[in-house]
Amino acid sequence: MKKIMICMILVLGMTQVALAGAVPQPGDPAPDFSLISTAGEKITLSQLKGKVVLMGMFHICVPCMNQAMEFEKVRDALKTDKLVVIWINTSGNDKAAVEKYLAGFPKSVNFPYFLDPQTTVHKAYSQRDMPTILVIDSKGVIRARSPSVGADQLIPYIKKLL
To answer: What is the pLDDT of residues 88-136, one digit of tens each?
Structure first.
């Protein structure tokens, strides 16, 4: 029985290490993806090389709505074509559900919301926090990964990358 327990602990430990290594972290290349926005706009992350990307992964929840409001502050403060702000619904919700969610925002946002019906971004980025925020530099490398973060922290950080 003792040998079985030791084997189980070792297997679980190796699984945790393997999963931890699969999460793209700062310094790693950002996994590519191709999605379509609620407005029908197609985006591929690799096409955004040369620009800094502020990317949010969200579900339909209040913390994600609050983070979207922070992204809007960043977009308003850093009006430059060298920054792209995107928000991705990684829970697989359909267009109607996302549009209903967006209609409930206290103020509208001026950046695109992308749909991920197959949850490919969720899987590629091993999303655990809701929301998850990534800053990707102009070379396609993840520079920051965090749960919710305020515009007051994002603005100076992104300014350094522009």
So the answer is: 999 899 999 999 999 999 998 988 999 999 999 989 988 777 899 999 9
Could you give the angle at the alpha carbon of 73 between the alpha carbons of 70 and 74, nearest 5°?
90
pLDDT of amino acid 105: 94
Judge contact between 141 and 28, C-beta under 8 A: yes
Out of 3-7, 81-85, 121-125, 127-131, the most confident range is 81-85
The separation between the first and the last C-alpha atoms of the chain, rounded to the nearest angstrom, is 59
Report the distance separating Cα 47 and Cα 30, nearest Å: 12
Q: How far is CA 63 from CA 57, 105, 135, in A?
A: 12, 12, 19
CB 147 within 8 A of CB 133: yes
pLDDT for 1: 53
CA distance 137 to 111: 18
Distance of alpha carbon 68 from alpha carbon 60, whole angstroms? 11
Q: How, if at all, do strands 83-89 and 113-115 pair?
A: parallel
* CATH class of the domain comprising 26-161: alpha beta
For the chain, the domains span 26-161
Distance CA 137, CA 90 (A): 21
